Automatic annotation (TrEMBL):
<dbReference type="GO" id="GO:0003700">
    <property type="term" value="F:DNA-binding transcription factor activity"/>
</dbReference>
<dbReference type="Pfam" id="PF12833">
    <property type="entry name" value="HTH_18"/>
</dbReference>
<dbReference type="InterPro" id="IPR050204">
    <property type="entry name" value="AraC_XylS_family_regulators"/>
</dbReference>
<dbReference type="InterPro" id="IPR009057">
    <property type="entry name" value="Homeodomain-like_sf"/>
</dbReference>
<keyword id="KW-0805">Transcription regulation</keyword>
<dbReference type="InterPro" id="IPR018060">
    <property type="entry name" value="HTH_AraC"/>
</dbReference>
<dbReference type="InterPro" id="IPR018062">
    <property type="entry name" value="HTH_AraC-typ_CS"/>
</dbReference>
<dbReference type="GO" id="GO:0043565">
    <property type="term" value="F:sequence-specific DNA binding"/>
</dbReference>
<protein>
    <submittedName>
        <fullName>Helix-turn-helix domain-containing protein</fullName>
    </submittedName>
</protein>
<keyword id="KW-0238">DNA-binding</keyword>
<feature type="domain" description="HTH araC/xylS-type">
    <location>
        <begin position="210"/>
        <end position="311"/>
    </location>
</feature>
<keyword id="KW-0804">Transcription</keyword>
Amino acid sequence: MEFGVRALTDVHDHSLAVSGWNQVYRQLSPGRFESVVLQVQAPEFLFFRESTNRRVAQTGDAPLGCASIALPLEQPITATFQGCRVDGYALMLLGDGEEFRFYTPESIDYLALSVPTAKMQALVSTVVGDEAVGLLDRSVLPILGKRGEQTSVELARFVQAYQCNPDVFANAVACKRFQDEILSALIDLFDRESFGKHDLTHATYAEIVRRSEKIIQDNPDGEQTILDLCVALRCSRRTLQTSFQRVANVSPVEYLRSVRLNGVRRLLRSTYHEELTVGDAAAQWGFTHLGYFAREYRSLFGELPSQTPRAH
């Protein structure tokens, strides 16, 4: 997976810096242009986050063969995308090679990802429902209530954590988690309210948790993500979240993290220090930021990983 960050002071240079997109940016408001673009690329996955400080007219063509989704970060926007007004938080969508026109506000921070169209359709069908696939043909999907703000803030923090520790992109487990977390968070914003509410009983929530635990136990390598569980269980991220909160009183993210932390602890308890360092054990379970790992480990087990007794 390729990762890069660039700070730029020219709108034209910025438009050329975003790989995979055929586009032209034109600065509309006066003043020194400043921007930052972060990019992550992998097979069948294009991601960028960009921030600009001036009004810009963006025109061009979306990546070929892909469905693309964008979401404002940190704050709501007022803009025009594909001739539609964007007022607040909304998903902005483009199809395979679709020509686009985006008039941004004076300053904007947003992310966008592109994945193969068939993959996106399959994920939306599985996680949200067959009837939601048609939403991919729309240009703008307003986000109801506080969900847009909450998801925006969470994703901004998530991307920032990876940006502060770019070495994690050398780890296959961390790369998969990056892709799946962003994909699942965006897909979960598709408005299921349009298709009617589903009243799930507590027994159904418990069954979802039971099946999730079985999937995790059958794949004890720590690579499972929230998106993996949603696809396997054919349920939305919100349903998975509600199930774990009501049944186990933890979020699915916390549950998955505890599985990985316990996996590291088992490794430490069953190996000699000379044959496996703490860092190597953590990396085997997808922890690549040792400071974060040590804090989470201590929070769960009441001791630092270096204090855990090793094999004798």
